[in-house]
Amino acid sequence: MPSHEPLATDAEVASPAFLDKDNVEGDYSASSIRAALINRPRQELYEYWRDFSNLPSFMENVKAVEKLGGERSEWTVAGPGGMDLELVSEITEDVPGERIAWRSSDGSDIDHEGWIEFRDNAFGRGTEVRVFISYDPPAGAVGKVVAKVLQREPRVQARRELRRFKQLMETGEVSTSEAPDAAPRGPRHL
Questions:
Q1: Residue 66 to residue 76: CA distance in whole angstroms
Q2: Sheet holding 62-69, edge to edge
Q3: β 72-78/30-38 pair status
Q4: Do 76 and 86 form a contact (C-beta atoms < 8 A)?
Q5: Amino acid 65: pLDDT
Q6: I need a surface site. Which of 60, 110, 117, 143 has the fewest CB within 10 A?
Q7: Quick check: helix, strand or coil at residue 93?
C-alpha cells in the first residue's frame, strides 16, 4: 500500500558555519563565529595562516607575532584607546590542512580561545573558512562596549580580517581606501 506522507524537504542546506551549534559556545563572556568562501585550495590557505608571521599582512590590529617556542606565540595587538595588548597563545589542536585551535596561556592580557577551520566546498568552489573567537574583554562589560564603539572589538575585527584574508588569497593584495604612500608634500602657497 503506497504511503500518503509528503516527501521531507527539511535538508540542512545552510552554511556549515551556522550548523555546528555545539562548536560556537566559548568559555568566555563574548564569542563570535564568522565564515567565508575563498576560491583557493584548502592546504594553501591553511599553510599561509599557520605561518603566524603572515597574519599582520591582513590583520590590521595585529602589529607583530613572535614565536616563543613549542606551540606558544606572543601577539602584539592594537587595543582600544591606542593601547597595545599582549596575547600569549598556545596551539591546542593542529590538524594539517584542516584546523588550528588555540587558547590563552600565562602572560596574556586577554583570556581567549578560538579556532579556524578549512573545509572543501561541497560544490567544488574553493574552501569554506570558519573562524571562532571567544574572549573576556579587558575591563569587563565596559571594556567590551568601548572596544565596540572604537571598532576594536574582536567580533567586528574577525569579520573584517576574514574579508581581507579572502582578498589577499584570491587577488594577492588587500584593497583599501587609503591613499598610497607618496612623497612628502611641500608647503602650501596661498
A1: 8
A2: 30-38, 127-135, 112-120, 99-104, 84-95, 72-78, 62-69
A3: unpaired
A4: yes
A5: 93
A6: 60
A7: strand
Phi, psi of 45 (to 5 degrees): -65, -45
Measured in whole angstroms, how far is the alpha carbon of residue 135 from the centre of its chain? 13
CATH homologous superfamily, domain 23-171: START domain (3.30.530.20)
**The pTM is what?**
0.71
**70 in helix, strand or coil?**
coil
Q: Are 140 and 117 spatial neighbours (Cβ–Cβ below 8 Å)?
A: no
Task: List residues bridging with 127 in a β-sheet.
Answer: 38, 120
Q: Which amino acid is at 154?
A: P
Q: Where are the beta strands (DSSP E) in the chain?
A: 30-38, 62-69, 72-78, 84-95, 99-104, 112-120, 127-135
- In this prediction, residue 12 carries a pLDDT of 38
Q: Is the pLDDT of residue 154 over 80?
A: no
Is 116:23 a contact under the CB 8 Å cutoff?
Answer: no
Spatial separation of the C-alpha atoms in residues 159 and 179, rounded to whole Å = 23
Task: Tell me how far apart the alpha carbons of residues 116 and 105 are, in angstroms, rounded to a whole number.
Answer: 18
> What type of residue is 164?
R
Handedness of CA 42, 61, 32, 109 (dihedral sign): positive
**Grid cell of 50 as nine digits:** 599557520
